[in-house]
Amino acid sequence: MTNYVASYINPDMDGIACMIAIAKFLSRDGIKQYEPVRFGNVDFESQYVLGKLDLPAPRAVDSLCDAGDVVLVDTHHRAQLPPGFPFEKVSLIIDHHPNGDEFANAKIINEKVGAAASIIAKMYLDAGLQDEKILRLLGFAILSNTLNFNSSSTSEFDREVFSEINKLYPISEVEMIDMFQSRARIFEQGIRAAIESDLKEFDTKHGRVGISQLSTPISISTLDTGEIISELSNIANDRRLKYLFFNCGDIVQNKGLLIAANQETKELLENIFRVPFANNIREFDRILFRKVDLVPALND
Q1: Residue 186 has what DSSP assignment?
Q2: Is the pTM of this model over 0.85?
Q3: What is the C-alpha separation between 5 and 26, in angstroms, rounded?
Q4: Which of 54, 86, 179, 281 counts the most CB atoms within 10 A of its CB?
Q5: How many CA atoms lie within 13 A of 16 on its CB side?
Q6: pLDDT 10s digits, 279-292
Q7: What distance lies between CA 5 and its chain's CA centroid?
Q8: Neighbouring residues of 133: CB distance < 8 A, sequence distance ≥ 6
């Protein structure tokens, strides 16, 4: 049997970095070996960072049917994991998201910070493990998930951990900008691919809700909102989701846009935010985040 580290389907930079880093951390004593594996794709941002650091992406798998021990990172929501996932084999979870599910056999480390990578990087630093590639990988992930510390979910802990990494192995401003620019490449594959690149489903008090999230340097004013609504509607039908919306952020102007897939989602969002949505769309004067602004509001 093999021991695995996994995350949610189509993990982002934070999930990818955490999988690789904690697998190496847990395998270091030679007693138990862990392999990082992924469900779904590696996004363009993660591809950029992994290429820069000359690190392989976690191997793609369809299931963990042969798993001995399983560690989960950057999620503890069952709805974000594939059918047949061996929940009973999960022994450790490292996450930074609210309102997660219980796992009967797992120790759960769930801190209210901007990036799960910050938690794992602190484990490396506390253990005196000065692994340049891994710490730079985690540093990039912290920058990514906190939007260079501009996210409302950013904590002082994230800042302090990144500062320690940056003193050892600096990440330049050019490298950071190139990383964020790489996010926009997803639009080359079409609107549906962009929506599905980071789409998670959550079980809320309103039922299951799909939230797609994408923050890029592209101005939200240039987006074809009509095409986005059409694709959202198609995805909602395909996934049999009553509620689905797209949370789009403009990193440069620090603006947000919520786009509802259908009338039911529009009414749900209007009720939660107590503001009208014109043609299923509402612009906000800041970027909104799933774990801070959206998921908690859906369970309030």
Answers
A1: G
A2: yes
A3: 10
A4: 179
A5: 29
A6: 999 999 999 988 88
A7: 16
A8: 53, 54, 55
